[in-house]
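Reopening: structure tokens for the 2-acetamido-2-deoxy-beta-D-glucopyranose complex, inputs below.
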Amino acid sequence: MENLHILQPLTTTTTAAAAAAYSRIILRLVLVLFIAIVSIWANYEESKGFAITVVNDAGDTPAGRRFSLLFLSNDKATRIVLKTSGFAEKILFPDDRHPKKPVDHVIVRLSSRNLTHPVVVSSVNKTEFVLHISPSVMEETNVEKAMILAVQRAMARVWLWDGQDGAPSSLLDGMVEYINILAGLAPVSDSGGLQLPESDTICWEDKDPVAVAHFLNYCEGLREGFIGRLNRGMQDQWNERTVDDALGLPSQQLCVSYYSTILQLPNSFNSTSPSLSRQVI
Ligand SMILES: *[C@@H]1O[C@H](CO)[C@@H](O)[C@H](O)[C@H]1NC(C)=O
Ligand SMILES: *[C@@H]1O[C@H](CO)[C@@H](O)[C@H](O)[C@H]1NC(C)=O
Ligand SMILES: *[C@@H]1O[C@H](CO)[C@@H](O)[C@H](O)[C@H]1NC(C)=O
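Re-run output (same inputs, fresh job):
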């Protein structure tokens, strides 16, 4: 009987120990499963790109034939989209705190007639975009560079949020230009790049995207991560404080100091990102 009394608690202890061990195993299995699921999901997220379609609407014209030969038949258009997209994404979504804009499908379409700009972006819906390339691009002497520039411009625009249609186009154009300059693609201007903005109080309300780009670069230099924060902020409805919030101080203040700085300094675009010219093709 006494043995039973001794056994009794022993058995209980054993059961408890077994139960604890069992639950540890379960816990470990759950953890392993969880990690597996997370890594599968992460891989999926990482590889999840967007579909790319290339279309030649210019048909059997000189521009159409050039496009087919140089960009369509060899998949070069696709490679240019991927490279320029990657460049814009790195600048606009530097880390996980900047959730990517959903993009499912990019269509590169050589237009049948000349457009007002080398490239015009339209959207089919919120996740599908069309890059209308003007046939005039195919007539450039350095046709490959002209094509890369057009697609870089377009892909920057694709990845930019627009304050739910409320962001000023001067600011969006300036951000596109900022990315082009960092990519080493912007045409060199007479002034060597540095442009005095039209207004010394709201430097991003300027018709010249190059001037806006230089102001944005100045802001990024003073407040690192500004460009990414600004794009993230433009995911929401645009308001008067969107730029100030991304800066963490009144933009007007920076505009005034920029305006006075630029009148004194020689040109120097503050580029810290790798140049795209080294990366593409
Ligand atoms: C956008 O349009 C395409 C077809 O034009 C469709 O397949 C896709 O599901 C649409 N996406 C959204 C988010 O509506
Ligand atoms: C498009 O513009 C180019 C000059 O950039 C011109 O040579 C060409 O004839 C134009 N094409 C059409 C279809 O108007
Ligand atoms: C670039 O920006 C940094 C601040 O981030 C500044 O100290 C430096 O002087 C700038 N360089 C040029 C050439 O403007």
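The beta strands are 51-56, 105-110, 119-125, 128-133. The two ends are 87 Å apart (CA to CA). Marking as resolved unless the reporter disagrees.
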